[in-house]
Amino acid sequence: MPLSHPIRFGANYVPSAGWFHSWLDLSPDAVRRDFADLAGIGLDHVRIFPIWPWLQPNRGLIRRRGVDDLLTVIDIAAEFGLSVAVDLLQGHLSSFDFLPSWVLTWHRRSLFTDPDVRAGLAAYAAAVAGAVAGRGNVFAVTLGNEVNNLYPANPTTPEASTRWAAELIDVVRAAAPGLLSLHSLYDATWYDPAHPFHPADNVDLGDLTTVHSWVFNGVSAVDGPLGPATVTHADYLVELAAATSLDPARPVWLQEVGAPRPDVPEADAPAFVRATLEAVTANPALWGVTWWCSHDLDRSLADFPDREYDLGLFTVGHRAKPAAAELASAIEECRRAARTAARRPALLCDVDLRTEPERRAEVAPGSAFHTEWVRLRQAGPLAIVTTGRADDAGHLSARGIDAVLTQA
Question: How confident is the model over 68-85, as pLDDT tens digits?
Answer without folding.
Answer: 999 999 999 999 999 999
